[in-house]
Each structure stands twice: as C-alpha cells, then as structure tokens.
Amino acid sequence: MKRREAREKALQTLFQLENTELTIQEAMEHVMEEQTDAFYEKLVSGTVQHQTEIDAALAEKLENWSFDRLAKIERTILRLAAYELMYTPETPKSVVLNEAIELSKTFGDEKSSKFVNGVLSKFA
Asked: For a 10 Å CB count at each end of the chain, is N or C smaller?
C-alpha cells in the first residue's frame, strides 16, 4: 500500500473513532477489511496514543478558533498530520503538509485546505 493510501485509510479510521464506541481494532478492521499495512497501523495507533499532546499542540496553533469548534474532518486531518510532524521525524515536513492539504481537498470543503495549511505551517 502506498503511503498516500495509508494516510487516507488512517483518516477514515480516525474519523470513525471520534464520538463512537468502536475500539481501534474494530475501526481498523472496518476500514481495512482483510488487508493490513504497518505504516497505516502506526498512523492510527500513534495518533490515538498521543491525542492529548497532539490536541494541545494544535490548540496552541489555532488563532481565533477553539479546537472543539473545528469541523470533525478538519480536526481529524490536523491530528493525523500533527502526529506525523511531531512523532515521525523521518518523514519530511513538506510531505506531511502536502498530504494533509490533499486530504482536506478530497474530504473537506473548499476552505479546508487553506485552513489546514495555515495551521500546519506553524509547525514547520
């Protein structure tokens, strides 16, 4: 599985986990069905494991927004990208930003990509 696809699947999994009773394993099985991918699993489990730290770091970067007011898809994209920026130094920051922007163009509205870019660029 290519990393772009792994990120997309991780986003779908993390989106499902928010405000549901699903376990990580159940959400992963629902999205991935039979297949598995180490990078995908690292993204999902790492984002969930470090969510408190990620949310705090993101909240510091938001201007005139509270973290709870963010649209669920933007919040999920930001968490996923922030996990990579904070905990996977082997991935270039420019790649993480580009991938997050592409995810927001695919899954968000017309303003999502600019918002995600603005928040994440403060990490770089």
From this structure: C
Q: Give the total number of structural domains in the chain.
A: 1
In the block, which residue shows the tokens 């017309």? 110
Q: Are 87 and 46 in contact (CB under 8 A)?
A: yes
Judge if pTM exceeds 0.85. Answer: yes
- Residue 69 burial (CB < 10 Å; 0-12/13-18/19+)? exposed
Q: From residue 25, give the alpha-carbon distance in Å to each of 11, 46, 81.
A: 14, 13, 21
Q: List pLDDT tens digits, range 12-25.
A: 999 999 878 899 99
Q: What percent of the chain has pLDDT over 70?
A: 99
Q: 46 — phi, psi (to 5°)?
A: -65, -40
CB contact set of 121 (below 8 Å; sequence gap of 6+): 97
94, with CB counted inside 10 A (0-12, 13-18, 19+), is exposed
Residue ranges making up the domain that contains 100: 3-120
